[in-house]
Amino acid sequence: MKKKLTKSVEQKGLELISILFALTLWQLAADLIVKNKLLLPSFTDALASFLEVIENGVIFTDIWVSLIHFGIGLALALVIGIPIGIIMGWFKTANRILDPLIEIIRPIPPLAWIPFAIVWFGLTHKSAGFVVFLGAVFPIIINTFTGFRSVPRVYVEAARVLGCMRDRDLIRYVALPSALPSIVAGIRISMGIGWMCLVAAEMFGVSKNGLGHKIWWHYYLHQMDAVLVYMLILGLLGLLIDRSFRNYTDKRLLKWRSGEVI
Amino acid sequence: MGRVKVNSVSRTFKKEDGLSTGALDNVSLEIQDGEFLCFIGPSGCGKTTLLRIMAGLDSPTSGNLTLDGVAIKGTDPKRGMVFQEYSLFPWRTVIDNIAFGPQMQGIQKKDARRMAEKYLELVGLEQFKNSYPYELSGGMRQRVAIARALANEPKVLLMDEPFGALDAQTRNSLQNELLEIWEKKHVTILFVTHSVDEAVFLADRVVVMTSRPGKIKKIVKVGLPRPRDRTGAEANALRNSMLKLLAEERKG
Ligand SMILES: Nc1ncnc2c1ncn2[C@@H]1O[C@H](COP(=O)(O)OP(=O)(O)O)[C@@H](O)[C@H]1O
Ligand SMILES: [Mg+2]
Questions:
Q1: Average pLDDT, chain B
Q2: CA of B134 to nearest chain A CA: how many angstroms apart?
Q3: What CATH number does domain A45-254 carry, 2.30.180.10, 1.10.3720.10, 2.60.40.1180, 1.20.120.1200?
Q4: What is the pLDDT of residue B252?
Q5: Complex-level ipTM
Q6: CB of B234 within 8 Å of any CB in chain A?
Q7: N or C: which end of chain A has fewer CB within 10 A?
């Protein structure tokens, strides 16, 4: 155990030094140069504030609520976005019907929908989820569509001569697996955008809890150390979500691509 | 049975500028059950087009085709195809690639896999059962593609320059293996190649085609006993006569 630890310290030495150096710089800048907790809380301020929100448990409620918002939005984006992308990618007529509608709605920034989200859903989880959904759904549609459009013709023809003839089967057994890398990439983009929309939606008061909401709340109370803690939590959580998703897809869904240089 | 009849098949492609390319011009041909037929001709003379029409992936502009007296329309598992480029599904393991055809015939995945193993053995790749295509060499990929096509027990196997991208040694051993499979499985093979050597080694008859639009220039019967000697005197003579026919096309 100890050996393992020293070994990983040796291996990650440079990275560790870099982080420690940045933290020290931060602490010194806050204590000696800025000397104003409002403008720049120091590292130790942030740490103390972090321990406090952990101790009283507030942070866990906020994380939980934010994850619910995010989950609702992303799940909806997947359930709606992937089928739309498939239909548009596979059937030319469907593409001609849906494309103009999507191109009109897509350029509207998701946050511009917040008033309607509140009018429609009130200050509920649904409301925040809706804003996340609007941010997440378009990258999924577009990447699914592109993935379907770039299915190599030879795979479809090979499947057809092997007796796979119905659209349904060709989509399920050929186009979908072939497009999966592109779809997965779209989901990753969606998660990033959805995460941003989540914070903004919660800040604008679409919700009464959550990480984004708390940032705004502490800002009003001029507790910038807490604001910073919530910012860092948002960053870490975002990173964690992205990493675990990539890990899962690389190990399970896209194992067959390990030979390719991406 | 696998008797193929091609009746005055022509195919022209319309281009965007309104002009059209003639790819095939009035091709008529009769292929016996269990025959090994090679097509050879200048590049762009319509060999791939003819094979695709026989597979049902393309249709003739005029003329028609039959398999055992039944009109060919659309694709059918009775007519298998091995493509020129690598066509294995990269997201499926070797065994699942081979099991694809039976699975599409409605056979349960487990049973389809069991059937596939037979064909995996036939091409000698048992150790690679659970590998993904990216882990295989070019020769192994084409072996799997052959096994995959055979798993549907087709009457006709259409092969479009399947060994074109392989090195000479791999190519020779795959030719030998293909002949063994052909003898074992009693399947009609229609094989496109640009190599005269390959045609003389493999075929019962060789169809030499003219340059575009492709017509049949001559059908050469290769009466050599099998197993064949690649460098025998008769093989050389046949090769030379075919090369002469092809040279005429290149000039004209
Ligand atoms: N889908 C297509 N659209 C337009 N032209 C085509 C198409 N497929 C083939 N051709 C043309 O038909 C001719 C014959 O092509 P092909 O059958 O691939 O020749 P080969 O396999 O003998 O080299 C070529 O001139 C090619 O450009
Ligand atoms: Mg060709």
A1: 95
A2: 6
A3: 1.10.3720.10
A4: 65
A5: 0.95
A6: no
A7: N
